[in-house]
Amino acid sequence: KSMIMKELDPTGINKDRKDKYRDWISAVMTFAITKSHAFIRNIEHGTVSLRDVARCIKLFNWFHNTLQKRPEAKSYDEICGRSIIFSLMICYHSRLSNKRKAYLIEIIRYIKQ
Asked: How far, in Å, CA of 106 to CA of 102, rounded?
């Protein structure tokens, strides 16, 4: 969690909201990355590392900044949610062979809670 808090950079909002969103994003990302690592270890019998976490956070920041600049940008909640999903899909979903649908169902179910 400390690595995620250190690297997250939600931009485009005021200081008070930034702290609130940073805490929320950190909690969701920590939970989702933990679930992703467990899924890959237990179901795929693969390996995961802190590099995967760093890559996921960098992708989150990139998607977050890019989605905010789009003219059709929705609410800040939607931008954050999409950024989380997109970064997880690139880092974890794409590396799965035949369990992609199971991973997607599990992660979406946890994120919606």
From this structure: 6
pLDDT recorded at residue 63: 92
Whole-angstrom distance, CA of residue 53 vs CA of residue 48:
9
CA–CA dist 105, 107 (Å, integer) = 6
Other Cβ atoms within 10 Å of 57 Cβ, number: 23
Both tokens assigned to 51: 């590099």
Q: Which residues, given as ranges, of the chain have pLDDT below 70?
A: 1-19, 73, 112-113
The CA-atom distances, in angstroms, between 91 and each of 2, 16, 58, 70 are 19, 30, 10, 23
One-letter amino acid of 78: E
Tell me what pLDDT residue 99 has: 82
